[in-house]
Amino acid sequence: MAKPAVVLIGADKGGVGKTTVARTLLDYFSIRSIPTRAFDTEWPKGALKRFNYGSIDVVDVTSVADQMKIFDTIESSGTQVTLIDVRSGLMSPTLRALRDIGFLDMSKSNQLSFLLFHILGPSISSLDEIAETSHFLANAQYFIVKNFVNNTSFFEWDKITYESYFKQIHHAVEIAVPKLNEMACEKVELASVPFGDFVANKTATGTPASNSFVLRGYVRHWLNNVFSEYDRVRLTDIVVGAAPREAASGMPAHGGAAAESIDVGATSPKVTKQVTLDVSATKVTPAKDDSAAKDAVAKSRQAPKGTDP
């Protein structure tokens, strides 16, 4: 197996859609047949766990015992990816803990791949998080995620301020998560299932559901757009070690073509140690035009991007 990858999803500010991004990543890795385990640090109840992604452990990331549970088992877990959904307000403390235990040094020496998905909010305090976290991340894959779930505006009105913050970390790569139709988003929340299971019209127990055809279509289209963003930055190649670090810029590595978007439902379901996604019941066709989602992505890509070293 390739060297293990640790994916951290976090933000020091709440309400920015952190768990939504974690869920899309679990769906993405599962449909790509990448064995993944997940930890939910919204102690004690959990925020990610309730969406039935298999056996997800709820841990207290500030506890040394739970840190051992996560990081002592990275190589022995039998999975390729360890995904950690970090509770709001704990991203910076978690990064300091990773520095103190020598985890960041392991990333620096290329013993594992470390990816941080930093969910950006619309406030100056959220931009300040970039300055707070940047000195930890010289050897990490750093993704700045703009989640448009709440119709958020990310400083398009103040380019100078925006650029001044992004210059602090040159290898940051931007990812845009477009807005999901409000009713579709609400119904998936109420169903408490992975996005892929909602599209496949499955309940939490795997039995046939009665989800709206229209709402399933909105979720399918949105999820394909999100997966296209992950393909653009060569996420699969990064976590399985099939491409060098410069692939994260979104440019093809070694002159190859950029990855194509995933057709959700076109791949047979794959059961991993922690994550199960069954989307075979519904064939998903490529997404058609969605002006609202594309406008959101287009605005994001107009913002200055970092360049990979």
Sum up the structure in keywords.
36% helix, 309 residues, disordered C terminus, 7-stranded parallel beta sheet, Rossmann fold, 14% strand, 9 strands, alpha/beta, two-stranded antiparallel ribbon
Describe this structure in words.
With 309 residues, this protein is an alpha/beta fold. The protein has one domain (5-302): Rossmann fold (3-Layer(aba) Sandwich), CATH 3.40.50.300. 36% of the residues lie in helices and 14% in strands. The chain has a 7-stranded parallel β-sheet, with helices on both faces. A two-stranded antiparallel ribbon has the order 8-9. The chain is globular.
Which helices and strands occur, and which strands form pairs?
Blueprint: E1 5-10, H1 18-31, E2 36-40, E3 57-58, H2 64-71, E4 81-85, H3 91-100, H4 103-108, E5 113-120, H5 124-134, E6 141-147, H6 159-166, E7 173-177, H7 182-191, H8 195-199, H9 213-232, H10 235-240, E8 270-271, E9 276-277, H11 291-302
Parallel strand pairs: 1-4, 1-5, 2-3, 2-4, 5-6, 6-7
Antiparallel strand pairs: 8-9
Helix pairs in contact: 7-9
In short:
With 309 residues, this protein is α/β, with parallel strands linked by helices. The protein has one domain (5-302): Rossmann fold.
Assembly form of the protein: single chain
Instruction: Tell me the CATH superfamily.
Output: P-loop containing nucleotide triphosphate hydrolases
- CATH class categorisation: Alpha Beta
Radius of gyration: 18 Å
Helix coverage percent of residues?
25-40%
CATH third-tier fold name: Rossmann fold
